[in-house]
Amino acid sequence: MDKFTQLTGVAAPLPIVNVDTDMIIPKDYLKTIKRTGLAEGLFAEMRLNEDGSENPDFVLNKPAYREATILVAGDNFGCGSSREHAPWALLDRGIRCVISTSFADIFYNNCFKNGILPVQVSPEELDELMDDANRGSNAVLTVDLENQTITGPDGGSISFEIDAFKKHCLINGLDDIGLTMEKAGSITSYESQLSENRPWV
Q1: So what's the pLDDT on residue 137?
Q2: How far apart are CA 58 and CA 87, in angstroms?
Q3: From CA 24, how far away is CA 87, in angstroms rounded?
Q4: What percent of the chain has pLDDT over 70?
Q5: Taking the CA atoms of the chain, what radius of gyration do you get in angstroms?
């Protein structure tokens, strides 16, 4: 997966609590196991009208936020069923970071495995970032994973905590397969010795 070190981009405000995975990617879009093409289903029930046209009032349809790479969302983001299509859809749309006061555990862990940084902040800090995100095309944040900071358009900075192992994986672009491949030399050596010592296996 792509590495995540520092991200500077437009932040879109989504001040809705309890955004579940069905809201992120409705079940109608779960018929594929491919990670691409899911952006069309992202927030489909809010983003699209019944006739399939875009809802101009939905934040990601507004001109200022069409290229947003950061989402500032309400509490308990990613709750509901444990569908990995949710982070896939966000990533396919270009969202690399989601900021909230809390996340559902499975969604939170799935984000790290797919190159998305979920950042947990306090309610007061979320209010500040939501204000920043409401600035339209001027709603530019810089998320620095190495230094664990979020810098707003006025230069104010917020620090955040993150598990050291998850941070290591994101900075180095390591998903579960990548972590395994880091041990490729040891695996090859083991299999070679196994072949010599136990050829019947």
Answers
A1: 85
A2: 19
A3: 9
A4: 92
A5: 19
